[in-house]
Design brief:
This protein is an alpha/beta fold. The chain has one domain (4-254): TIM Barrel. 43% of the residues lie in helices and 14% in strands. It has eleven helices and eight strands. Strand 3, helix 5 and strand 4 form a beta-alpha-beta unit. Helix 6 (115-135) packs parallel to helix 7 and helix 9 (182-189) packs parallel to helix 10. It is globular.
Amino acid sequence: MVRALIQPTAETYNEYLHFANGRDLGFEIIDFALTDVINSEYKDVIEHYESKPDGEKRLFISQHGAFLDIYINSRDRLIREVSEKRIFDNLQISERLKLPFTVFHSGFIPLIGQRSYYENWVNRHIEFWSGVNKQFKTCILLENLWDPSPNNLLEVMEQLNPNSANICFDTGHHNIFSKATLREWFKALGKRIPYIHMNDNLGDVDSELPAGNGSVNWLEFNDVVNEFCDKPIIVFEVGNLERIAQTIYYLEKNRIYPYN
């Protein structure tokens, strides 16, 4: 399996395929995370990927699922139902395209603060993803977003099968929103982190800068990945091919995972 991925859409597919050739890069499909796609008749988008030859399909490693306004832990039944529909639509696409991984945001909101919210979030995620794991073959990856520490995700992972559910660690989200260090995150969850979204920022907004253009400590990142993880897949989530090239150059120059 390839060790690093980039994120094409149906519209950018050909140029991303050209870039991937010779670089041992695969694809995280992101079309079905976008509201303009999932609110449309997207049969043609699925068929776009299904029509590719087997040599290209082997590059299809994952998809990013819907993330805007997805709250499976909502106390409002109708909001839960819509959120679950979006997730199940994504999962059915992953099954159809035979994607090993599907990424969803954690959706945890630390500003709410109450212990009851925390407990409901944990219990609901354990219940929901346990049910999903019984129905679908794709491995679920929960991505840290506003999570201030690994604690809530750790509680969920302790109750889920590591063959069916794990963590997608996002370096940019951590840099903005987390009070815990990279070492604390990876010491707690490293064995459950097979997959990483790599991008940089200045600690202010989720600007998805190329690695080395923000304040993420990439030397510490390299250390904790090598110490606590088992060769995770990296996704260069930096917006366009120019930024991807800049990121690869920076990582190779500084011998940072996965180029160490």
